[in-house]
Amino acid sequence: MDRTTGRRGEHVNDPMDEVTIFLLDDHEIVRRGLVDLLEAHDGFRVVGEAGTAAEARRRIPTLAPRVALLDARLPDGSGIDVCRDLQMSSPDTRCLILTSYDDDDALFAAVMAGASGYLLKQIRGPSLTEAVEHVAAGHSLIDPALVERLLQRLRSPETETSAGPRPDGLTDREQEILGLIAEGLTNRQIGARLHLAEKTVKNYVSALLAKLGFERRTQAAVYGAQHFGDGELTHEAP
After folding, report:
1. Block mean pLDDT (10 aa), the chain, length 238
2. Whole-model pTM?
3. What are the residue ranges of helices labelled H in 90-186?
């Protein structure tokens, strides 16, 4: 549903100070409530909405909103994955992830995907509009308590020592893919970067997870980020 007309159907040109917003949530009733809440706030305008990740990926680059409110869990994917893709297709759009779950893995994934904020859906209306304003102004808005848990996770000795082989146990290509995972890229994006089929990248990811003793991609991302910081990973030219 496009929202590119005014209340009486006339076309509206965006003022420079207007905050344009796109909504992604698979529940229509949630979107209706968010539209009512946001458009009641002076200076906000909802320019589009979607119920699936695929629809959002298709429409957001065209509408170019200043802020995208993205549901973390969707029938066909994740708002976090959409956020990651938007870093390439619509880099001027700031992403706020909305979730019903206080999940460390999702928080880490959102941060790695370039989200400007990660908010629980229990947030009150005034706090949500304030968050949108801050993000639209170019500020990062991640809950400090959630960030502290993420930092504790990054400092955890378990993350550093439980992984079995060090990066030198990986092939050059696996090390390179580990580095791109640490940057928050999806398999599809890694494939495009390295000129590999997405299925081939998936096979490399499965192999490096097995070698490092990890079950989740986010564990590999943390591990790769730590070793990049120490300059330990080597890279092969694509």
Report:
1. 42 63 96 95 96 96 96 90 89 91 73 84 91 91 65 54 52 87 84 88 85 77 69 43
2. 0.62
3. 104-112, 125-136, 144-155, 157-161, 172-182
